[in-house]
Amino acid sequence: MSTDYPYQIEGCSGKFSSEINGYMFTVTIKLTGVAGANDILQMFNALTDSNVPLIGSDLSGINVALTGCWLRDISCTPLGDGDWRVVLDYQHSPLNDVTGNIKASVYTQVSEVQSNKGLPTLTYPAGKPIVLNYQYPADYGGTSATQEQIDLRGFKAGDQGGTFSKLVPETTRIYRLREKKDPTEYREIVGTVNDAHWIAAGDTGKWMLTDISGDTDNSQQVTPEWVNTYTFQYKVDGWQPEVVYTDKNTNEPVPAPVADESKVTVDAYETNNFATLFPDFRYS
Question: Could you point out which of 104, 126, 207, 267 has its C-alpha 20 to 30 Å from the C-alpha of 157?
Fold first, then answer.
């Protein structure tokens, strides 16, 4: 069939691919009067003809509008007398507006932190800061005791705080997707925290976008495609730090601190609505 362009569309075909979870289209066009002293030069001129869409172009190049359909491959065969058949392979990438294109990974591992409190459900110390004291024995230092050790015999020292190493779980969610978006577009939101419910109830302020990276092997396209990776880190107590008044005598946070008086939560990190920025990630 003829078109407004200086070539003919000879045919088209398509299929749905489970590998990409999207559609693939093949459009065959015929170029006439391709110049070149031999088949090799004619082949090059056919592939680079100004009427042949560039890799990365959408279907509007052949007078068809289909959102998210990009030219991925071009091949050609000679027909003789300067005529060439050019095959255009398009892939309908779901991109970032369709969940089928998103691959998600989730893992949880433990990391070591220092703590001075046990769990509130345990007998000791029942969720309160550890307090230790010590009474020096009457024979402290033994027969070779120094005068300083002798002076400490029978002495009961004041309270002392204690800490221990504790393993806590940390969950990471990683999303990978192909999209026509340069990852630097999101550079300003790396290090921000979700300001509303995102993955599960009660997770406001507990997810941080910690990393965005991307790779492309076709940066010379009209609009390059990127395979971008987004990494989110979960912190069970939330990312905004909490500061509590310290008792000068015990050197420990005061018990039952009052919000906005003896306890404040510091807005140390900018926030964003991840559900709006990444509406499909949580369902992947």
Answer: 126
- With b for 16 or more beta-carbon neighbours within 10 A and e for fewer, the 161-198 pattern comes to eeeeeeeeeebebebbbbbbbebeebeeeeebbbeeeb
User: Taken in order 191, 197, 199, 204, is the CA torsion positive or negative?
Assistant: positive
Residue that the structure tokens 């070779």 belong to: 144
| 167-205 pLDDT, tens digit each | 878 899 999 887 778 888 888 999 999 998 888 888 999
Ranked by mean pLDDT, which of 93-102, 156-165, 233-242 comes out on top? 233-242
Query: Could you tell me the residue ranges of all domains in the chain?
Result: 8-93, 99-116+164-283, 118-162
CB 8 within 8 A of CB 28: no
| Tens digit of each residue's pLDDT (9 = 90 or more) over 82-91 | 899 999 888 8
How many CA atoms lie less than 13 Å away from 226 in the CB half-sphere? 16
pTM of the model as a whole = 0.59
Closest CA to 76 of 36, 49, 38, 37: 49
Q: According to the model, what pLDDT value does residue 58 have?
A: 72
For residue 30 the two structure tokens come to 């015929």
CATH code of domain 8-93: 3.30.980
